[in-house]
Amino acid sequence: MPEDDLALLKDAALRAGQIALEYWRNAPRSWDKGDGAGPVTEADLAVNEELQAMLRAARPDYGWLSEESEADPSRLNAGHCFILDPIDGTRAFIDGQEGFSHSLAVSRGDRVVAAVVHLPVRKLTYTAFADGPAQLNGEPIAPAPADISGATVLTYRAATEPGHWRGGHVPGFRREFRPSLAWRLCLAAQGRFNAALSLRGAWEWDIAAGSLIAERAGAKVSDRHGQRMRFNSPRAMVDGLIVASPSLHGQLLAALAG
Question: Is the pTM of this model over 0.90?
Answer without folding.
Answer: yes
